[in-house]
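User: I'll paste a sequence; please echo it back and then give the predicted structure.

Assistant: Echoing your sequence first, then the prediction.
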Amino acid sequence: MVQFVCIRDNLGPLAGKFTLIMTRSQQNQGLAIKLARVRQGLHLYEVARLAGISSARLSQYEGGHRQIPSDVEDKLRALLGMRRLGGTDEKR
């Protein structure tokens, strides 16, 4: 189980947990991609290879550390059977 935590001021008792600090837009895009990939049992390197990007770059996108270019986002959504409806992500 992956634990996502948004940290604001200090780590306190959450030290050592996976932290997710990003803009809401990047978080939504990256998290939606990651959730779709994990639900399908696909490894990061498999999806990255099929999308024509490096595993490190896909990891940055999923973690919200980089904005996903629209052409790459379209490729990833197509690979993972996702579509965008009214600003929300939905599985086909």
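Residues 77 and 83 are 6 Å apart (CA to CA). The longest helix spans residues 24-39.
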